[in-house]
Amino acid sequence: MTANARTLRSPAELVKAGLLPVERAEDAARVGARYAVAITPAMAALIDRDDPADPIARQFVPDAAELVTTPEERQDPIGDLPHSPVEGIVHRYPDRVLLKAVHVCPVYCRFCFRREMVGPQGLGTLSPEAMDAAFAYIAAHPEIWEVILTGGDPLVLSPRRLAEITERLAGIAHVKVVRFHTRVPVVEPERVDGALIEALKASRKTTYVALHANHPRELTEEARAACARLIDSGIAMLSQSVLLRGVNDDPAVLAALMRAFVETSVKPYYLHHPDLAPGTSHFRLSIEEGRALVAALRGRISGLCQPTYILDIPGGHGKAVIGPDALQDEGGHYTVTDFKGQGHAYPPKGTDG
User: Fewest 10 Å CB contacts: which of 93, 150, 221, 284?
Assistant: First the structure.
């Protein structure tokens, strides 16, 4: 990665950088006219230009398959809008809210569930008036224990603007936890400096950073160093990943990703079943395939490395755990399935004599 490298933001720039074949440029331009495109130098450097199925490229390089929509897909696949009492707030669960302060990202994932809302053509950054209304809502609802900053990626904001947000949260006594959902430590690790870290901690609340990564190659030396800077400052880190066809739909790759998180002191948290966002059907596995992949992790890698496999129920009904069920009720006793797929009675059946 050269010192003067910059983020690539158009199919023409991707062609010039060798990340997109010329014959795909016209279709990619049609995709780019609808959905935002951005690949940071850190991610561009990871792409194997000789591998047409490279899992990093698949996440960020626009593809003609995005122009295909299926009947079940929807613009708001997890139902944020029905739970948005004021602009920028999503209050789906009683004790926590999402605060969507910004709708831009350092990179744009081709499978993004908010792809209709983010990017230069998206909803933008909250105005001062909308931000005031969002904070007024949080302050007026004492049941809100946690505020989750998402978007967009909140860490694209300057340290000054981030500090303005976290300092305002400091003044709301019933908010005890502040969480940031981000890709920045992986895709733009140089942004994670002392000023950014101080801004994240300015609320003086318990602070978590949830890191989004989907392939073990994303956890580069630079990314791990950025995470270490956050963790060494006292910020706890969790992971979130999306199960994606052609990226991590392999037990060995998924295991390597979860181990990479744990080696970086990032606790695996959520493994999302891909949402029904427009133009993303080529990424989606069936739930049966997903459950089989998650089952393959059980017993083969440390319990520290086990994520929770979840589905966001379309329509805004929240998350549901959909991982493999090891317990079957047999009426008076249970059959428990071990990591080898073998069933065992519980309680164990007694023996005569």
Answer: 221
